[in-house]
Batch of 4 targets.
Target 1
Amino acid sequence: MVSQVDPAAIDRIIDKYQSEEGILIQVLLDVQHEYNWLPEEALKRISERLEIPFSQVYRVASFYKAMSLTPRGKHLVRVCLGTACHVRGAPRILDKVERAINIKAGETTQDMKFSLERVNCLGCCALGPVMVIDGEAYGNLVPAKVEEILNKYD
Amino acid sequence: MVRLQSPAELEELRKHMLAKRDTKKPCITICSGTGCRAYASEKVSTAFEEEIKKQGLDNTIDIKTTGCHGFCEKGPLVVILPGEICYVQVKPTDVAQIISQTIGESKILDQLLYTDPVTGEKAVHESEIPFYKNQTRLVFGNNSKIDPTNIDDYIVLGGYSALSKALFEMTPEEIIAEVKDSGLRGRGGGGFPTGRKWEECRHAPGDIKYVIVNADEGDPGAYMDRSLLEGNPHSVLEGLIIGAYTIGSHVGYIYVREEYPLAVENVFIALSQAEKYGFLGTDILGSGFDFSIKVHRGAGAFVSGESSALMTALEGRVGEPRPKYIHTVISGIWDKPSTLNNVETWANVPLIINKGAAWYASIGTEGSKGTKIFSLVGKVNNTGLVEVPMGTSLRDIIYTIGGGIPKGKKFKAVQTGGPSGGCIPESLIDSPVDFEELSALGSMMGSGGMIVMDEDTCMVDTARYFLDFLSDESCGKCTPCREGIDQMLAILTNITEGKGQDGDIELLEEIAEVTKNASLCALGQTAANPVLSTLRYFRDEYEAHILEKRCPAGVCKALISYYIQPDKCQACLICYRNCPVGAITGAKKQIHVIDQNTCIKCGICFDVCPQRFSAVEKISGRPVPPPLPLEARVIKKKKSKGKK
Amino acid sequence: MKKITLIIDGTERTAQEGMTILEAAQEAGITIPTLCYHPSVTPSGSCRLCTVEILKGGKSRLVTACTYPVEEGIEVKTNSAAVRKTRKMLIELLLARCPSVPVLQELGREYGVKKPRLKKIKNEDCILCGLCTQVCQEKMGVSAINFVGRGVNRTVDFPFERMWDVCVACGACTYVCPTGHIQNEAHKVAQLKRKLGIERKCRYMLMGAVSNKLCPHNYECWRCEYDQRTEYRLCEHPVLALKLN
């Protein structure tokens, strides 16, 4: 589902910052949040309005994990691989998730249902290993529980 | 909220608020930090709200959602005031009983109290729980008393009195002297003396200066700053405003990582409320001092938490570090003098101003003053946030407060300082937490992440894990970090896959030296620490992997095999049913056997085999015994006594 | 400008305040190897090859000469054992990434790098020095190409890997590239050759060095008198010599 970018929507986001300096990253985050990815037209508009070279905008978008230059799936699955979760067996959870939805971390399923990301610490270490789907946290995971959790999402 | 125009007005407001508060009125406080929310504490809060409404008790009982209490292992935590009765692991179904019995009839519900796993003793008050009893919660303690979305809670506890004192009773030079004398050192990892940093910045040429709160908290396993910012944002703001006044800055930045949406939200609320009261903006409290704060979110890059990288990100450019031969206190954001400090550092400042440097310096060790908040996580019973005076021993933190290692396992090492730090083994567990002491041991204080590891943790895999993390997070600008980490990672991966060779350790050490000495920023310079410290204390594990192709902890997949012991297997079919690839053959009364060629080493059979049988074992460093012939796999039922 | 006195390789030298150790060394005729340095752009300190040892206040430290400002009384050693050991490993690391790049092989010979010891050998020919992106940004002022991504997978490219019109085939990137990786000039010229009529603007016009000049030589600048004369006059690539930005 490639979204059509309305330049006015991008302008609205930029205008919120009232010509403040240094807001490129903040604008990109807001656009990412709005469209669930960063379409090329959005980057072009940002480059024009902020008078920043296009390659510079693209560079920033390609540097940060929170920004995606390809469309993301409907549900974002984030598996925590922070040290505490790692020590409690998180790699086996990631393995199970990857096998269950047939993609590797950093990818999106063909049907655009799930995007999978490795995260380095969500700050819920007491519940490790932890997985967050669409902001909802699932803790004290064992590989056996993974599939039934994923099946809850359509 | 009326804008306060003088310290006197602030004091009057505080007195007025205190007088209005009915300290005898029951108040149910529910921990709503991100950790407890993951335990569905919001459902508990809603249940309380609904029940209170249902029973028409809106005017007789207050509810307050607070920030993180710190005892994350036992969440959701509910503390009932005024008695301070602490209930742990509260569920929505407990709510009705709590209201009717504890509040209505002053009856304590034993089943919701904390029970000491060793003595069986129950603790009624939060302060009696061993986890809390042995801490010194000077900075973090107020979290349980404050609703972070209500600035009045902070004011009632004395909030902003330090700001008032700083603005009206002290000069910037006096404040610098006070902070210097206190011995406060940066809590983000660098440990640089805060007073000296402020002094250098104050004296740097230029009229425009910046102060920054570093809330990027990238170390995996560390979440102290998040809980502080979520739970008591005003303590950080107050410290920042005092710092700004001291240095002569009128614009401040708070850089929060985007993985902390609740912290971002609560900071915005705090800023708006502080502005309404006049603690921010123009002519603060009538002092003539102007100061405003902007919030920037991070975007998922560990390296951007490095101070020069963070400043570059604030300029809207890619958050990569720059050469720091000219200090950022002289040339920082937009090349202007900038003071960057960690969240916890700023939160310590109001305490120092209010209670004085001498008091602060009386806590801690010679070189490390005050307290430190640690996130105690990993293989430990009482996972949570722990605040102790500097100089407390690791043993006290892990055992006395942390409750030791779960499931009766043996302690192996504690990792401090995040990916820049190192592991400290059992033999050194009586070492005190102190900046210099931890560095001497090959680790570092870092931001406070403390990850406990047990006998089932492989130290070579741990080193590999950290390098994998750093390789992902390296900005890639400089050769030794970008290529050096990649090459060290390749060697370590080989070792964990059984492809280690003689000479690998020496090569690792050589690459480590160059990344340490030649990298542009601290990420690269400290990248080799996890490798070097695990080599220092666990060289035998490396040698076992390389020379014997054995993983002593039974972790490295390529070096372990799962084997069902024929004399223990009771043919219950549980592992057979759970194996995701059908690698187990077996039937009722027929001993199960794992086909080593099909097995993917996922370990599920090991997990699900009932404890009373414990038939599945991990073999490493020796060949797997061949499977029994089919006839020998029949389990003969044991004849019971008395029968023929 | 304040004069600074420092010792480089045992000899006392004077430098001007604001100079870097590299500039002071160059003035004194001492060669320090560099890869990511070019006098016409801001030093980035990314290759780390110019690492030198300094003694300051009794403490020894390794720093990069291209970014470290000269300080009164410091002692600089541009070729000590520690320095050579560091440079050797840096070259090994770069050779593992780009084994076929001539300038790296040459450095390898100079620093005694024999057979490869590192495990992961790649086949890149870009050392990520960033010079191409810097000249495009700082001298041409168009920033047509830039770094993309981070860490070991970082590359230099056009956004979305498409050659945008903002690139004018000035060739400055090709000129400064130490390894020969950058071929934008050739690719862009191929694009320009497909243009017709008054669109066939001379590259100097596209650069902004002249107004209204069309190309009569099918973008084969080696045949062009104007180009030969300008090159001869400037002794440097026009983008670097002329203040176009």
Target 2
Amino acid sequence: MTEFAGEQILHVRGPDILTLLTKLKADGFNFLADLTAIDNLTLGGYERFAVSYHLLCHQTGERLTVKAYIPEEKPSLPSVESLWKTADWQEREVFDLYGIKFEGHPNLIRIMNPDDFEGYPLRKDYPRLGRKERSDFPVVDRGIQKKKS
Amino acid sequence: MVQDDIKSNVLTTTLESAINWGRKNSLWPMPFGTACCGIEFMAVLAARTDLARFGAEAIRFSPRQSDLLIVAGRISIKMMPVLIRIYEQIPEPKWVMSMGACASTGGVFDTYSVIQGIDQFIPVDVYVPGCPPRPEGVVEGFIKLQDLVGKEKLADYAPAPAK
Amino acid sequence: MTRVTELPLETDKMVLNFGPQHPSTHGTLRIIMELDGETVTKATPEIGYLHSGFEKLGEDLDFNQYITITDRMNYLSPLCNNVAYALAAEKLIGIEVSKRTEYIRVLMCELSRIADHLLNVGMLAVDLGALTAFLYGFKLREDIYDLFEIATGTRLTTSYTLVGGLMRDIPDGYDKAVLKVLDEVDKVANDIETLLNKNRIWQDRTKKIGIISKEDAISYGISGPMARATGIEWDIRVNEPYSSYEDFEFDVAIALNGDVFDRYLVRMEEIRQSIKICRQSLEKMPSGDVIVDPGLGYSLPPKDEVYNSIEGLIYHFEVTMPNRGMTPPVGEAYVPTESPNGELGFYIVSDGNRTPYRVRTRPPSLMNYSIFSKLIEGHMLSDAPAIIGSINVIAGELDR
């Protein structure tokens, strides 16, 4: 449990996350505001990937951040889609951009990138300019004699 | 006399200039607006700057019924096949205006997922820079396009020789 | 006489592609619908047609340079995005801004909220056939664009805030111009309501369509006017005030049914409350400085100092050279704000360098749109534009 700038952050190991979140939801944190992942390659930290969940309680207005750490060799976590339906698309986005699999998710396919995209773009070892995906489209031929003016 | 009547009621010109005059004053645009430039394009069509006074009266959202494709906004790799397909569905003669910095060169977004300029794959006639361009800029681009259309030759549209 | 026996017609389900290029999908959305006659039985939305890698760009750009990118997310109300990012960066670094900065930020946010709601109501009206509301709204939006241009320099992509203050102060006489526009907004809002509220066609097409229940709204993560239309009383400006919102008096609009008509009513009422807030902020505007001391190394010093004194020049290079610049503490911060669409927050993780390690936007449009496939089941095809219009999906924020 650490604190930064007035906010509380809980750090847990990956597989324990489902039991912890079930207990927190029963305690009153009924709203999952955000679900995202961080690649700790150059930052350091307990493991390579950290998935962070931001929770909110409507009754008291309290916010809490929970970070689950998972190692690089086996990037998978239990899915929280059974607790909050909003996790459906957010977990698909984390899978698309980072390659972290969520067990128990009904429909884990790519959401932002095209279906035949290879690689996981937001990892730190993927180049920002991409690997030539943005320039392999066919050049359209109009079939007329017009020269460019 | 018949001679006097002819002088005041008959106009002679070439076929090319008559056809170009008709084409340039009734360009029907098809907006392919994806992002912020799309909103600015809606402002061009609204009451203050009005594109309809230049002949672009009918904004058609179907490619088969228009002749000017206005690409406004950034094109991502998932959207490019859609753009190519729509471009191929517009019947000749057709023109393309690339509105904004993102459609012309990729703009601020030099990333894995944005096409750095649609003119790598589709022939573009007019580029309108700006992020987003002011409505007056779009109108100037439109007038330049009308000048271009006025100078075309009918032989341009003959089929290209087979390679 | 022959008797004709009626055989039941065998129908098959038709798969319709409500494609990425369509006049009534605002932006680049694609929905694959299975239709049984006119009724939709299943709808699968597909997004990602505008994915531009904003978060990857955030790792290469400075804290202050990223503000230009944040305008392009929710392009109907860009000032709200700028303020949200600046608040998150300021919380991470630990800077306090002056009261005048906060009041000006509130004024700009509320003007953008008026512009966003006007456009949203206008597009909803156009999709259902009422073109006049769109043109009234757009004429007024041009006046608001003029106001933005006087203060910031451009109409749409403003990049007005800096980490620690604003780009520049508002000029003298600005309050008279704003008050004139606010009177117009009042009149136009009344006009639009007169045209639409008691209109039989509008009520038939929007009442009892797309009803969301309270439990569904909380489970799907919905926030903003959509959630308030179902009866949830949660407005971040009131419950978790940021940037001096606690100094202003206004009401929060809540409706109980959760259908398209209620969301439209909530948005119109929010326009009126925003007018109230704008007037209060102009009356109570304190005087003071707008940019925090540039000695901290965050914002560029003013140009006359750069050209005329050696300290100004040194500060300028300190901020812009690649291996110098600001040194924020290592840590992370998340600040939720109330954008016209819902809860917009930025989650910034920093590792001590001049560029953030990870910038994440919590996009309200993504959460709001995820409930669409549940809402459209059982309705007819022509209700789809009404529901999409009331959700206010903005593709720039959805796909980032």
Target 3
Amino acid sequence: MSARAHGDAGSGLSVGVGVGIAIEELERLARLAEGSAEGAAHIALRLPPLRTGSSPGRDADLWQAQSSLQRSADRLSDLARALRTAAVLYDGADREAARAIELVASHAAAGAGLVLARLGLLVAPALLTATAAVAAGAALLTPEARVLLADRATVLLSDPRVVELLRAGLSLVDDALLGALGIPPAAVAALGEGGLGVARLDGAAALVGIVAAIAGARGTAPVLIDRVGGDRRRGGESAPVAPPGSLADRIGRLPDAEAPIVIERYTLPDGAPHVEVYIAGTDAHAPLGGEQPWDMASNIALVAEQEASSLQAVRAALAAEGVTAGTSIVFTGYSQGGAIATLLAESGDYATAGLVTIGAPTGGIPVTGAYPAIVIEHRDDLVPVLSGLRRETTAVIVRADALPDAVPTGETLPAHDRERYRATAARADRLDAPSLTDALARLPLPEGEGVRVAYTARRIIAD
Amino acid sequence: MTHPPPSAPPASGGAAADAAAALAQQAVTVHGLIRSLDEVVAALRGTRVADTWWGPAREALQAALDLERERLQREGWRLESVEIQLRHEQRLLEESAPAGLLP
């Protein structure tokens, strides 16, 4: 996949729609070349009347300037045409190249899975011994050495090249699994994402989900929700709130995982109700399958496109706020919240009027609705790659480097930090990118103040 | 490029004064065209193709845009010399015209 920058090349901010996100850059440059060509041609046209015959030298200068400007105009016009042709070809080639690479890689992954499965029984004892040795070695390390090791790992996992490699690798998990089951590599390639698309990452995630469920993860267990300020007779706490004014403003309204759902109710100019829902990211400290539904178990269920506990909680909160299939609604989500937002926006159960996600593992979830969708991803963020290569999408994708200079030490996944995403959103707000400004302009604009409520959620554990 | 604003054409009287006024008018036109060209050059100068993709194609495109910008800039300088010539001839005519015919 390729990317482009819109007036913010220094910081690597890029904007585009769907897979061929270089196309907007080509279009912008084509417009610039075309505008310059028109300017030069216009000046060239105004020079002939100045050749009065009173000074041969001056007339010669004017003649030369006219011809040279006209030639420049022609060349810039040609350049604009070439850029537009390249945009069309690029779009097709990008998709074809991605498909071809996936086919070859799928074949290789299946082969590797087959070999590894066959070797598994032989290498398992050695692998166990090695793992035990590494664990024992880690236990012997001083705290300083462990911090240093963790920082090194953070630096490595914040490298955009490593992140892209992981994205491609994770897309091939299915193929490796099929290979391990003994299906011939050629057949795996034909069945996989580059071929018939029968085997996809969500299949592998479902398998992981089954394993996680056996281990007691309960990613899809039912939940209870409660309005913050929980006295139901008074309806809980609510506060007046102004409509979100920008992308950064939206990101700033995302809640923490303690009360992971925020709902704002507004009225549209035509008197119809409108709802904005903000969904938190994963609670990094939540035990797997515990009471906190914003945990890794829900994450796994979401990537498998299952009814995760966290997703059920958002559905329940929306129902509690009287949101129906006809209520205009914009979903905004961070990380796991972004995956929930995308699944709900695409579910067909709501009158989705917009979708904004940051750092979300949503690559495998198609976005095909007619609503404006904006996806913000950091190239050096590991989380968005967890869902593999981006599939069918009509979303405007904003990509940027969160850590263009140096990777900060002592932070886990620094490029996934919500505040860094807010800074990126603020930069995107200032960007003059037609697809992005169009998507922002298409988001509903409520009238006057709204009401804000927050919800907590708790997973029901049957044991 | 920076260009001082041209003086308004003088009121004419007599052939020399008329010719001086015509030259001044031409100088104003040329000055306006130079300003327009400056804007085109500035737009091309502000262009920077994204660093993060394209490889050789990006460099080729950047080189093409830079080349055209330099060519247009050179034509701007050529027009500046034309403006200087016009102003010089205008001054000579004004100096040669009878004092009563010029403002």
Target 4
Amino acid sequence: MSYDLIAILMFSTMMLMLLTGQRVFGAIGFVAVMAALLLWGDRGGYDLAFSAAMKLMKWYPLLTLPMFIFMGYVLSESKIADDLYKMFHVWMGGLNGGLAIGTIGLMVLISAMNGLSVAGMAIGATIALPELLKRGYDKRMVTGVIQAGSSLGILVPPSVVLVLYAMIARQPVGQLWLAGVVPGLMMAAMFILYIAIRCRISPELGPVLPPEERNIDRAEKLRLLSAGMLPLFIFASMMVPFVNGWTSLVESSAIGAMAAFLAAVLKGRMTREVFENSVRNTLGISCMFMWIILAALAFGAVFDGLGAVKAIENVFTEKLGLSPWMILILMQLSFILMGTFLDDTAMLVIVAPLYVPLVGELGFDLIWYGVLYTITTQIAYMTPPFGYNLFLMRAMAPPEISLRDIYASIIPFVIIMVAALTIIMVFPQIALWLPDYVYNK
Amino acid sequence: MTQLARSYIHRVDGLNRFIGRLVMYGIFVMMGILLWSSVSKTFFMPSLWTLEMAQFAMVAYYILGGPYSVQLGTNVRMDLLYGEWSPRRQAWTDSLTVLFLITYLGILLWGGIDSTIYSFKYGGERSPTAWRPYLWPIKVIMCTGIFLMLLQAVSELLKDILRIRGEEI
């Protein structure tokens, strides 16, 4: 049997096993160890799984994963973001659609304090959404705003998705994170622009706050503005030592986690229950990620051993005669397509080991591709029928928002994200100038 | 037989829950090591041991915590079809597919034990870094964790069998 055929067989067996609904790490790990045993016998075959565990241990940046998950849980469980929302509420209320714009701002700040989209989603759906609906905002628009805004969590540093990508692509996490900053802010700006224009044309979508709600005295306004300092402080405590080279990325993540924890304690929000939930959920989610990575590394090792990537590349360039750019565009399209029916974590571990080395072979910059990859994941998160964010939204949103509303709400935002993706594909400098500037000064 | 299964489930789940709840505070251990590392690096001599110690702590954290995360149900499944099935059908499918999981864990443990035995030979395998720690303690911890994971997977299988037979767990 040729190696390409084995690779295809492994891939389809894994897809089939995933469909049975067994735990993802079990399905991937099983295919990996069986393939290794069948290919290389019990010499070299059986220790593949465990050497993946040793490889995982030696990959130092992975330590950031539990840190950022913990940070995210502390922030969302302790509800220290409430004040942040109030700040935007008071300062932006005078504008048509101002609260929706404020919500995007809130999401950017939350994204800068944690690396997953779940925390932003939880805060958006439980704090911002009911308030916006009460003020007569169009429900489809605000549902879209929260979903699109929270997806920034995986692009703006710290980002867990980019940590995982870095491991698979063997690229430095620091540069990847910096590469995510400008595209993240650009996308947030595009969202804001869209909301502003949309509400300009049809003001009934986002009515101005009644004057009695806006006439809050200056002292109170300033007090609320200081709430905005908290995330900036947490973000700075993490990024300043890192960018200046005083601490490594991993050490910075621990400082950030500590800062978030202390902020919650000082604000008197760290109750027994919050503490228990944050610590327990951190263990649960970290274990979920780590065991999947463990299995995916074994799977990737078999793929490497087969030279499968080289074989697939040959099919595209030699046999089909496609240019690298054509292949890249085809890959992004298939990625979005897969994202519509695949679970997000499954996507991350299945698609990345296959696509990332291929992109490298084609001669593209892997840091730049990391940003494209993350935006595509964001889009995949949000596209029906199976998007992680869609289900989360369904679970957290008030009952008057139906699944149909949620599906309809994301359409304009997905179009904006595809536009952002295209812009970054055409102008790689948007992603690359910041890491270049910081690392080559 | 049912009695035996119940007592197995009870004991294994109890043990893994205890261990899991203990290691979940490991997040603070990791944080502590890393903070010490940043402090010592900035103000006095950089410590040699922090990097690897943090790595060992992380491995212990996720491997020993694994069985508890299975109990908590945080391990994602692809629920495209699975989510639509009845609990009975889920239990049937799970009781078959959990054998994949058990096979994987078994081979993982096999490789682990082999690697641990190697670490004890030739005066003990050391990590090739400046600190040069022995590697057998972490490997023993990893094997223990994988073994506990295996016990937990069997416990899940027994639970599914009880569910199919319509008995209480």
